[in-house]
Amino acid sequence: MVCRLRKNLYSLKQAPRQWYKKFESFIHKEGFQESNIDHCCFFKRYESSYIILLLYVDDMLVAGSNIGEIKNLKIQLSKEFDMKDLGPTKKILGMKIT
After folding, report:
1. Other C-beta atoms within 10 Å of 52: how many?
2. 97 contacts 88 by C-beta, under 8 angstroms
3. Residue 1 carries which DSSP code?
4. With pLDDT > 70 as the criterion, what percentage of the chain qualifies?
5. Out of 39, 62, 68, 96, which residue is the most buried by the measure of CB atoms under 10 Å away?
6. Is-contact 34 21, C-beta < 8 A?
7. Can you give the pLDDT at residue 66?
8. What is the Cα–Cα distance from 88 to 97, expressed in whole angstroms?
9. What single-letter DSSP state applies at residue 56?
10. Separation CA 83–CA 81 (nearest Å)
């Protein structure tokens, strides 16, 4: 039996959960750990640097001490997900960053 969806994927109730599960699986494969305090905060430690990735719905903030590692992460993310790099952060979630 084949069923035809009358709604697109994004209007289904489970769509956000499925997207998060896919993202979480990918980010764990990349070696990131999930914070015990906030499940939308992921981090990865290298020998002499680190990356912190914060996720809020479909907004992402990446911070770290090594720009090369950050660029590599962005390349990996863009291969897996449709995304747009907005450059250095000026504002996120209504907060101005200086």
Report:
1. 15
2. no
3. -
4. 86
5. 62
6. no
7. 94
8. 10
9. E
10. 6
